[in-house]
Amino acid sequence: MALNDFAPSSIFPEQEVQTIINQFFLSMATEQDDFFILLGSIQGGAMRDEIVSLLLTVWVKRADRKYKNIGRQSPYRQAYFSRRGCTFEEYRELFDPDHLEKHYRHYPAFEFFAIMDASERRKFTTNKTPNVESYIEDLSLAQLSALNFFF
Asked: Which helix (DSSP H) or strand (DSSP E) does residue 148 occupy?
């Protein structure tokens, strides 16, 4: 199975991205709001990071469903994970001290960030907090191509 068709739009059509963003904003409207108009774009900050986190959760679930047959021994596995990224929940697992080094390969975030041992994990997590801002920043630094699709 090649990853030629791993274009973001083949997994997550742009119209659906906009629908999820609209639903996010509508969920913030209160009963006192007479109406809610969606205008403009999101440039940065906590709200943008929350939306991107939400979109990436949907992205990862769809990518996993589409490429569920990529096994551990597949020559495409590394390419898949470099495009898949990880969800915020998976990212938070990097900071969980209960995960043993021998089990790192079972956690998608460890695989995405190529963390193979405890020293790499310490280096990666030192001076970071497991929050959405750090998550988005780390995905950007890792050059996750899906982020470009959402901006």
From this structure: helix 145-150
For residue 105, tell me if it sits in a domain: yes
Q: What is the mean pLDDT of the chain?
A: 79
Query: Could you tell me the sign of the dihedral formed by the alpha carbons of 31, 33, 35, 40, in that order?
Result: negative
> CA 139, CA 147: separation in Å to the nearest integer?
8
**How many CA atoms does the CB half-sphere of 149 hold within 13 Å?**
21
Indicate whether 20 belongs to any domain: yes
Would you state the structure tokens that stand for residue 39, as one six-digit string? Answer: 């205008």
Number of domains in the chain: 1
pLDDT, tens digit (0-9, with 9 covering 90-100), for 23-71? 766 666 655 555 555 444 444 555 667 888 888 898 899 888 877 777 7
Give the domain range for residue 92.
11-150
